[in-house]
Amino acid sequence: MEHLTSSSFKEKVYNYEKNKEWKYEGKLPCIIDFYADWCAPCKMVTPILEDLAQEFEGKINIYKVDTEKQHGLAAAFDVKSIPTLLFCPMNEKPQMAAGAMPKETFVHVVEEILLKD
């Protein structure tokens, strides 16, 4: 899992300052976890994302955005609660979900949304 800053987000996911319409910059579908270190539900999601990073290695990327350090990035995506997860398929608009989810839900999203052909 890689932690993104505003500049690495614009390079690897979406340049929200340059593009008005969604244009995914990544080479693999991804999950972006908007979190904070003090957030208990965020801490529950982290090991699930670590498992997914291993299970789907080479098929998806998993990124984390610390909302305490990346205020502008969180604001750009209107993140009002954490964890907020952004699911970015290759050729479709991203989908956002707020709150912790069980691993089965993440696996379903990866298989049915991120990796569907």
Strand and helix layout:
Elements: E1 2-3, H1 6-12, E2 30-35, H2 40-55, E3 61-66, H3 71-76, E4 84-88, E5 95-98, H4 103-114
Low-confidence stretches: none
Q: Report the count of strand segments.
A: 5
Rg from alpha-carbon coordinates: 13 Å
Q: Give the overall average pLDDT.
A: 94
- Strand line-up across the major sheet: 1-3-2-4-5
Count of spatially separate domains = 1
Give the N-to-C terminal Cα separation: 24 Å
Helix/strand class:
alpha/beta
Helix content: 25-40%
Global morphology: globular
Order of helices and strands: EHEHEHEEH
Judging by the overall fold, what is the CATH architecture?
3-Layer(aba) Sandwich
Q: CATH superfamily assignment? A: Glutaredoxin
The major sheet is characterized as: 5 strands, mixed
CATH topology: Glutaredoxin
**Relative strand content:** 15-25%
